[in-house]
Design a protein that fits this description.
419 residues; alpha+beta; Cytochrome Bc1 Complex, Chain A, domain 1; 2 domains; six-stranded mixed sheet; five-stranded mixed sheet; 16 helices; 13 strands
Length: 419
Amino acid sequence: MFDQITLPSGLRVVGERLTHVHSCTVGVWVKVGSINESAAENGLSHFIEHMVFKGTKTRNARQISEEMDMVGGQLNAFTSKECTCYYAKVMDNNLPLAVDILSDLALRPVFDQTELSKERGVVLEEIAMVEDTPDDLVHELLAEAQFDGSLSRPILGPKEQISAYSREDIISFWQKHYHAENMVVSIAGNYDWQQFLELIGQYFKDFPNPSAGENEKKPQQFAFRKLSKVKDTEQLHICMGFPGVPAGCDKVYAISIFNNILGGGMSSRLFQRIREELGMAYSIYTYTSGYNSIGSFNLYVGTTPENGETVIREVQEQLRRWKDDPMTEKEFLSAKAQLRSGYVMGLESSSGRMQSIGRSMLLRNELKSPEEILEKIDAVTPEMVLDIAEKILCNEPCAAVVGKNADQILYLIGGEALG
């Protein structure tokens, strides 16, 4: 059972009690990420996530860290394409401190100019680290190849813009997005709901920015570009992408089973063929990405430049093979069991539950119980998996390649549907 309420301010608060634990994980979710940014604002969501930890109206950066460390808690944050989340995991008796600090970060940052200059350097180092990590870089390049619009842009933003953003730019963006109707507070663990609401009332009573309703986003479009970046690397990094399904759609369970069969685990077809039989890759996998209005089905493989051509042809052959040699009953049942058990094991973590209910409420304004999710997984039939696989593979793939001979390998990824 979930606890939930929408406060008069518009702030949504959700919770899930886990009586077998002695801790709580609390998250403050803001509906802002790179998808909400214009080209001129790219990277500001992530920059703000960094800056709020550098000082608030009641705490400096050192105090924020020390107060959480003093109780043995964990404090962190992340920015994604669609949201920003600040979260803390503490022993249940330290819940008031967690709510206090999280409210400080979300509602009372000062964006000090001196700290801004220092943290700009940290973000630029993070961007440089991605550039120096080709298996991260290829996924950034894939997003650029895959989408038209804001989804194609990196979460970290371009270094030229990060170098140029002023304090006024950051405050203006923060004021536009950090308001009550654009936020959710979620909690999972051992807590008393009424006491938690009293804490929310105490620390989240004064929102500095007026609510502005839903932030308008332009519709996202799937693109079919092919992009390469030549770098002097030991490995060749290859990604292919196909249209998938949006997050929250019931078809996510069928596409997840297809993912497990094709490349989602050690027994998957691509792993067995490319790594185990041919020994031509250490890492090869498929994965799904879902957003509110659009989704993708993606493939990654890292191999040597010398084996690039062979690996591409073998991958393409496995994708074509699906049409004539679709899944067996054994593959279907195994993939379904993997999906079910993975979901159930994720329920055992208060952090995982907090993230699940917080993200769902923020982005889709709904909560699904574990029983509902398991029923939907159990309801998937082989026919549903075959149908979604056909819809995915009937498309021409987009592609991204990073490595020494990236241009030549990109040319081998044909412009026709593979399924």
